[in-house]
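User: For my dataset I need records formatted as: sequence, then structure tokens, nothing else. Please produce one.
Assistant:
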Amino acid sequence: MTPFRQIIRQGQSGSDVVAVKRAMQRMNVPGSGALNLSLRRRKFAGASFTKCVKTLQRGHKLHQDGIYGKKTHELVAPHFDAYGRLLYRRAKIRKPPTPSVPTTAAGAAKRLLELQKSGKYHDDRGTTIAQLVATAAGKSVWSPLGHNVAIDERTLEVLCWLIEVKGFKVGTFALCTDHGPDSPHGHAGGFAVDISSVDGISILSSASKPKVVALLKALHAAPTRVRPRQLISGGIANRRDADCSALCVPGADAYYGATTMMQHCNHIHVGF
């Protein structure tokens, strides 16, 4: 049987679409006779293609999403003819689309709550989830400033970007209410977040060093919207001589106040 190669969604095109159309017609899937195999349109997966896939999925008690994936391929592949197998093998591999990152605080908070369920985001101290739930509902959170504040959308957007675009698993232990009102780093106003683990490894662990360096470099080269003004990492595992000291965005010095690097030995401070 021809091995599965890639997902086919509505709106995509390629020779693999032709192969699947031909196979579904050989299977006599209801509606497959209407699939367009003309020279101009045969490579395009349109609404009729999606409808046929859903019909096939429904008939075999699969999830009816209309997306040609691995389980659907297992049903269809035995019905490829020789030409279909050739077309499928020669199809170009499509690059997966870059995930869209929410640009509102509520949207980013909702996405982070979803990422928490999938294990890609973790609240390392147990104090951030309640703030995310409030923000996702469009509410403000209590601040050490003595009143409620709205968490800045960039503070949450940068976490979504690190996880979904750059592929890190991120843990945090400070968002808004974990710092006092006199902090020079913006936590009280909702403008900063502290990252305490990367890919499940605590930043206090010396094993985290390569991951910390990679994450800091990613933030340095981040798009303007999610590139922080404050980026402080005080070393690895409480070592004053750690060679992974602060990598600071140029021009951010005015925001650091009297903070020492050793105060950031167990986390990466990301602020806007």
